[in-house]
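Side project, low priority. Logging it here so it doesn't get lost.
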Amino acid sequence: MTSSKVLSGLDTAATVYESFNDRIKVLSTKGVVPGLCVVLVGEDPASQIYVRTKSKKLKSLGLVSETIRLDADVTEQKLLSIIEDLNANSKFHGILVQMPLPEHINSQNVINSINPAKDVDGFHPENVGWLSIGKPRFIPCTPKGIMRIFSHYNIDLTGKDIVVLGRSNIVGRPMSILVSSNNANGTCTVCHSRTKNINDYSRNADIIISAIGVPNFLTSEMVKEDSIIIDVGINRIDSDNEKGYKIVGDADYDSVFDKVSKITPVPGGVGPMTIAMLVENTIEAAENIQL
């Protein structure tokens, strides 16, 4: 039996996928099938699993999903040339280059080369700008998924003190924009590796969104009674099980569970919503082209 404290990304995603059906049908009447092409460079195991999961979900909905796999030693120029071809390919409404990339490739150059109208990750500077002024074209998938979890569970952010742990362009920064927007009305503090006395901030937070990638970092002593934890961390640690490892979040789940009012599990929390929002952004990209 699932505790009422648990904010399930799986349950939220199931509801979200149901809402896509009518949108997909409307596009199909116009002869449009939303399509995503993922470019995967190298053999990173986590990236390969993630890409397979994305592709499987898109295909289960009858959408177009293709993956271009490149060797880790591919040149930046070759990668940019492939993206240029995808920009011109009407079969694909969305383009996603799986991060991280090998060190010899400049990630920002790659992001900049993607047509902003096909940038379903929401990382292109143009799309970041639209988000920052409150008129987003694409919202980055993980922050968007977190906002959808809040909505699904009727969690009102108005007037809440929200601490975001992490300042990456993938989660932390866009998350801080979304929770403090005119629609959400939360008060946000961003903490990071150079923040002094993080405990002083986390202990006063109504909601903590942790995206720092440190296993079991957030303990009971760092959170206040009845707060809410959104755990973005996906960390692999050694275990005695058959796999030899297990996946844990940034929060020490057992430590904080009795103290908080709500928490996302790892796995089964934010992760499934990241996939769901990628699918939605791909559908939105197709819809935008049809306008």
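Brief comment: The radius of gyration is 19 Å.
Revisit when time allows.
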